[in-house]
Amino acid sequence: MTITHQGNVSAFAAAAAKPVETNVQSKLFVRFLTRLLSALLIFLAVSASAQEREPVRIAFLDPLSGPFTSIGTSALLQLEFAADYLFNSRGGILGGRMIEIVPFDNQQSPAETQIQFRRAVSEGLRIIFQGTSSATANALNTAVARYNRRNPGQEILQLNYAAVDPVLTEENCSFWHFRFDAHAVMKLNALTDFIALNENIERLYIIGQDYSFGHVVAETSERLLREKRPDIEIVGNEFHPIGQVKDFTPYVTKIAASRADAVITGNFGADMVSLGRSIIDSGLDIPIYTFYAAYDGITATLGEGGKNRIRLVHSDGANPVPTEERRRFNRAFKTAHPDRDVSQPRIPMALSMLVKAMEQTESTDPYDIALALEDMRFTSMSGEEVWMRGDDHQIFQALHILAHTDEGVEFDIDNSGFGLVRELRVPAGETVVESSCEMTRPLR
User: Fold this and answer.
1) Bridge partners for 99 per DSSP
2) 265-307: per-residue pLDDT in tens?
3) DSSP H or E run through 379
4) For the chain, which terminus, N or C, has the lower number of CB atoms within 10 Å?
5) Do 277 and 305 fall into the same domain?
6) Is residue 168 included in any domain, yes or no?
7) Are 214 and 277 found together in one domain?
């Protein structure tokens, strides 16, 4: 009996101990799951918070070295300042995300543009600002189109703030490219209207850089002047290598020999400085009609010699300053960068339109942004309404003919005392032109 009793006790004890052991294990397991779940929730919360704070990174791809360094650097500073002044200082965008501008130096080279584009893509950047030179803009447009065809769902968006070769919104138009400046034909329509009003011009000389934009300026100027002033004789139409001519005296000698009454040029950067200075120094007292004869050292260099002789077509009205908002922006930029000027107000406008598209769609995906930008109406800080046409992604805005002078200037340029004063305004509706664009749209 004893043995049996002991055995029963042992068996009972073993049976009684088993559920106790199981209960302990269950409690430990539940505690483990609770801790794991808590850790997972904390991780997700931290990840979500980090995602909210992750910056919106935007590539800037333009010359930051070489003969056109000044233009590229100036544009970069304006884009960075606009991001900080308009958005980062006010809490960011999309619920608190800062805008980060990531610069890439394409050295004003189409080949280097392709290389820097691949770098930007490898760093996960999907929005690219670019504008200096139509040659590099066309190279970037080609690279973006090829990449996007091969990588559906990971597309890149090209925001062009200044490259004005019409081909970019006509035969080479792309769903992934948006231009925030009037193209060359639109600008030349305004400029040749102004030239046609000057009855003193009977002989005109055209000179420009030997690349796509320079050729568009030459061909379009001849065509439009034949239509508007067939009595004007084109006494010269020639090209020079871009960024390579150190002395324009031989070219100016030919201009003088032609007895031209005026000059048209699409030159920019160092080429504009050298050509303008050579014409002035030669003693030729004739008007020079241009696109880019101001800012980044050009205005200071031309100085008194350019007064009432240099005229350019621009999307900005310059002086008189149209709004208090624009005045505050100019002053703030000048405080931050005393040796620079707001030369391209299209840059803060383009950034503002980009942010508006992001906020509307609550997305940074290029496809969503592109859809929101199409046919967007936007009022710039200058009080001008602009329209981004959906058919070709070409913007339409008022154009202005500006004169280089030191009279009536609230904001001068290059700290020179000279600036730009508006002589003629062409309303946005009068700048609209037809387009040959046949855009291929991605399927989503």
Assistant:
1) 56
2) 999 888 999 999 999 999 999 999 999 999 999 999 999 999 9
3) strand 377-379
4) N
5) yes
6) yes
7) yes
Phi, psi dihedral angles at 133 (to 5 degrees): 90, 125
Q: Which residue has the tokens 């032109």?
A: 433
Question: Could you list the residue range(s) of the whole structural domain that residue 11 is in?
Answer: 1-42
Give yes or no: residues 422 and 283 share one domain.
yes
What pTM, to 2 d.p., does this model score?
0.85
In a domain, 443, yes or no: no
Element (H, E) at 189: helix 184-196
DSSP 441: P
3-state secondary structure of 105: strand
d(CA 65, CA 398): 32
Domain co-membership, 235 together with 152 = no
The tens digit of pLDDT for each residue in 166-200 reads 999 999 999 999 999 999 999 999 999 999 999 99
SS percent in the chain: helix, strand, coil, step 5: 45, 20, 35
- Does residue 171 form part of some domain? yes
Domain co-membership, 416 together with 377: no
Residue 19 has pLDDT above 50, yes or no: no
Closest listed residue to residue 353, CA positions, set 406, 393, 326: 393
From first CA to last CA, the distance across the chain in angstroms is 85
Residue 16 and residue 30: Cα distance in Å, rounded? 22
CATH number of the CATH domain containing 348: 3.40.50.2300
Element spanning 147, H or E: helix 134-150
Find the helix or strand (DSSP H, E) in which 137 lies.
helix 134-150
User: Is residue 438 domain-resident?
Assistant: no
Sign of CA dihedral 262, 229, 317, 350: negative
The pLDDT > 70 percentage for the chain reads 88
Question: How, if at all, do strands 177-179 and 157-160 pair?
Answer: parallel
